[in-house]
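Researcher: We're teaching a course module on how sequence relates to structure. For the next exercise, students receive a sequence and then see the predicted structure as tokens, so they can try to spot secondary structure elements on their own. Here is the exercise chain.
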Amino acid sequence: MFKNRKIIPPTPEEDAAINRGIAADPDTYELSTREIAELKPFVKRMGRPPKENPKEQVSIRYDADIVAAFRATGDGWQTRMNDALRTYMNEHPLEHA
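Model: And here is the predicted structure for the students to work with:
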């Protein structure tokens, strides 16, 4: 989304104008270290919550027709592929070396 955007930081003059605006706003102030520490218990963790059984990312090669067949089923094809492998695993116990 933002991959090709170039971030242009404010000039010192622009930064000073921003800080003057903040200082002039009676509803805005900089939190002290103590105030920040007091707020930490109320800050929610960003992102998805950790899963009980997380997925593991691997790099693997499948025949193109197999991948195409699953992709043709639409969104969720990777989950369906995982389910198919699980079904096979349950029906054909794997021997461990």
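Model: If you want an answer key for the exercise: The first helix runs from residue 12 to 24. The chain has a mean pLDDT of 89.
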